[in-house]
Amino acid sequence: MARFSRRSFLHFSAAASAAAAFRVMTEPMLAAAARHTRPPHAADAVMIDSNENPLGPSQAARDAMAGIIPLGGRYSDNLTDDLVNTFAQMEGLNPDYVRATVGSTPPLSLSVLAFTSPQKSYVTADPGFETGMMMAGVSGARVVKIPLTKTYAHDVKAMLAAGPDAGVFYICNPNNPTGTLTSHADIEYLVANKPKGSIVLVDEAYIHLSADAQSALDLVKAGDDVIVLRTFSKVFGMAGIRCGFLIARPELADKVMERGGMNFMPVTAVVAATASLKDPQLVPERRRINASVRQQTFEWLDRNGYSYIPSESNCFMLDTKRSGKEVREAVAKENVLIGRVWPVMPTYVRITVGTQPEMEKFQAAFQKVMKG
Ligand SMILES: Cc1ncc(COP(=O)(O)O)c(C=O)c1O
Question: What CA–CA distances, in Å, run from 116 to 167, 256, 279, 344?
Answer without folding.
Answer: 5, 11, 38, 24
